[in-house]
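Can't attach files on this board, so I'm pasting raw text. These are the components:
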Amino acid sequence: MSPDVKLLDVNNVAIGIERRKRETLVLVREANFDINYGEMVGIVGESGSGKTMICRAIIGTLERRGASVIGGEVLFEGLDLRTITEAKWKTLRGKVIGYVPQSALAGPNPVLTIEKQLAEALSQVEGTGSMKNRSKELLDLVKIRRVDTVMKQYPYQLSGGMRQRVMIACALASKPKLLIADEPTTGLDVTVQSQIMELLREIRRDLGTAIILISHDLALVDEVCDKIVVMHAGATVEVGPTASMAKPRHPYTVALNSSRIDVAKPGGELLTIKGNPPSVGQWNPGCRFAERCDYVQQDCLVGDHPALSGKKGEHQSACLHADKIGKN
Amino acid sequence: MEVENVSVTFGSGATAVEAVKNCSLTLHEGEPIGIVGESGSGKSTLARVMAGLQPPSAGQIRFRGDNVFKGNKSFQSGNRNQVQMVFQDPYGSLNPQLNGLSAVAEAVRIHSKVGKDEAEQKALELLERMGIGKLDALKRPRQLSGGQRQRVSVARALSANPTVLLADEPTSAIDQSAQAQLLKLFLGLLNDGLAIVLVSHDLGVIRYLTKRVYVMKDGVFVESGDTETVFNDPQEDYTKMLLASIPGELGKAARAKLKR
Amino acid sequence: MSKKVKKVRPEGTLGIIIGASLMGSLLLAGLLIPWFGKFDANEISSDQLLSPSGTHYFGTDMLGRDVFARVFDAVFIDIGTAFAGVLIPLTVGTIVGTLLGISRNRRVNSFVGSLIDGINAFPFLIFVIALVAFLGAGLSSIILALSLVNWARYARIARTRAVVVNQQGYVEAARTLGYKPSRILFRHIIPNVSSETRAYALSDFTIVIIAVAALSFLGLGVNPPQAEWGAMIKDGATIITLAWWNAVFPGLAICWAGISVAVFSEGLTKRIGEGNQQ
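---
Top answer:
Structure tokens for the assembled complex are below.
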């Protein structure tokens, strides 16, 4: 494989729901980012920004919701994911690309013991040794102690953090190249959150798995990721290496940064982003952040949504006036 | 408000669970305090006891000197309005059949004893203060975001003109940007003289808003004091661990200290 | 700034419109035809067992009565009875179930709870038939029997739902805000419980329509000469090979009524379902 092939390349991707006799409902307009092998990338955005939709496109579960990729390309190791058949998806999903769902929403199957769940995940993959041993290894991998006890338990007997670890273990059964963690710690205590983050870091280090971390929390992503992708109203508005993102060049990122609790002074100025993210399908012409932007100019309100400047891999911003922002 | 040696036990006999063990705290007028702990620490139970929703198994709760609980009933002396609560789950806190305006107007009507139109007017004003515009006020909860729902809940609580507001993990289920909005809102309310008891597992949030904090673990207060002090010089290991878990810069600093 | 909001017809609306039109037209016919129709439903004549024609659209029965007139004369009887047979259990069951769900009184809970479970254990139709036979034939007996049996089904749904609703944040908030218990019950708890029971009522309606007709078919319903679909089918069943129109047309009417309700409730469910997806 040529060294230029990225693990994942999302190029100007648009996702929408095609409806009979109605206009296609566009959920994602321009998503743009790439991931190298072993990289940890954070995708940050508010609800409705399209971050979950992108991941569904990568894992191929868009059809189930009636959505499809209506523009751009999603290349996984050079393979265009839009064109592959369901049979091909089965070789990727859960094997080469893993998925850990939001902690609050889904979780392990409530009627199966942990042992059975792990066995189910492992049965998809070849491996050496007995199922039981392989399952124990997986639980070890996610730092669950008292492995023997846990194996026999049902999900309801475990805490939220433990359940999430089990989900991660199931996803890791096939030693995937890419792991998508969709808001893995939302709703969990901060202590558990930091443990899960530490776990993800170790997985990346020990297994070389690339990880996509979806979150609404910039502080969290800032701490653990190599690269940050910021999404707003269905478009990638800024993307770049974490270090460089400390000086954001898009008003939305600037605003997100200013609303971080961890850097605010107690009882002091806490900037908030005015307004609410535009609802899906109700996007105005021009830049979709214009309504809420502190730096808005006349040319921001017309035409197409601004495209990302610069080249992939660099610090890119989708603001017409990015250079002015960097200076502040 | 005074919480004096309060304990709360659920169940009885062999399966009894002591959620709160002998906790005491004081709340002064217009003061922001925080109760921080993980899930299962008993902090939500304590908050509910303070709100008069759950009688303590032992100990007393006093509001302005009066006992809150007489037998199993709370706030019999007409102080019910004074202590209000905002709950954790924005999705369940609002009646799905009422839009924001109706929910708040109902509360206003009952507490201010005004007519329907006047109540709606006041409700709109309150919602405006919370950053919920007229259009959004007419939406049903399922059409609003988590942050917006929380703000409607706060508006509803405020219509009772309380002197104490208990907030149980108000920011846990919402986006970072919505969190910032909500906290800023609380800050404004503090400036208006409202006392706030903030219950959370996130010390970052506690630090931003409160002047004093009680650290709770397994039903007991393990450490308490001025927020600034507890932050910079934590005494207990548990507190140190909580500090180290805060995402972002604060956590980093705490972890660095731990290593030394 | 103009918001491009496309007004699209929500899913399920078609079902609602079709269902409502079908039922509406049936009810309208039931209102107008007895008034303006050519023949009186109970007018006996010597034109017995005539097949459908230009004069007698649905033919005539054994006593020379116009089947067309009779079918539509029965509309309000059948549908009205079914309506009462749903409304009463719905109201009673919802209230009792809700009160049970929020009550903390152990004894009341287990007593009434057992009663509900006991009634629900019996097969619906058999229990109703037995009760009507006991009470004596007639429409009021049918309504009474239906109510006595069916309320328990609604109560079970209401109780389960009430337990959940009672623990919801907004109910706790209402208590914290010091609302009176009656207000909390009637403004907050019951509306959210009845959403479930009302949904059940729609599907129940179809079943009850058929049950009413079935009871009359067994001779437990209206007294002759009142026209009623079930009774007409019973009379027509014996001569079905000779004069099929006697049984078929009332049967079609029952189907029409049942299908209209079913289509309506499907559409309604879809409509509400789409809203819930947001």
